[in-house]
Amino acid sequence: MAGQAQAHVLIIPFPSQGHVAPLMKLAHRISDHGIKVTFVNSDFINEKVVAALPDEVEAEAEGEGRSRVRLASIPDGLDVGEEGRDIAQLTESIERVMPGHLKDLIEKVNINSNDDGENEKITCVIADISLGRWPIEVAENMESMGSRFLLWDKESWLGHSTFRS
After folding, report:
1. 117: Cα separation from own chain's centroid
2. Which of 126, 133, 131 lies closest to 149, judged by CA?
3. How many DSSP H helices and E strands does the chain contain?
4. Which alpha helices (H) appear in the chain, and where do they start and end?
5. Which residues are bridge partners to 127 per DSSP?
6. pTM of this prediction?
7. C-alpha–C-alpha distance, residues 22 and 126, integer Å
8. pLDDT value at residue 144
9. With b meaning 16 or more CB within 10 Å and e meaning fewer, what string describes 82-121?
10. Which helix or strand (DSSP H or E) is residue 60 part of?
């Protein structure tokens, strides 16, 4: 599909228990329809996710296989090894640190999209509502993004969890 635009969804969950798994499930459901997905975790959560993956799934997630869900990570501002993270401290740090890193990641993906002849620019952002508005504000301020975004919460997902093929 060289040169032809393809949908590419970026999904970013709140980096806490109970937020990552449902959005990962959504990512795989979206990818089942042929849509490329970049799933962005904090470095802390990504380390745990990758450690739990079998080797062949890890290779696919890193872009070496056929999976349409690619894992990426950005810093949340706290030490990766820090156990017992305080939720208030984490939330403040996320709002201060992650927006700039998310913007850089989107720019990097979009630039690399042009370099390899494939047009796989990120066309949509799905953000966990627990993150607040900052992921949407980042997407809105990206010239290449337009205004394609969605705030997600698991309560809405529970009532609408079936995708039709």
Report:
1. 23
2. 126
3. 6, 5
4. 20-31, 43-52, 55-61, 87-115, 134-140, 154-159
5. 12, 151
6. 0.79
7. 12
8. 61
9. eeebeeeebbebbeebbbebbbebbeebbeebeeeebbbb
10. helix 55-61
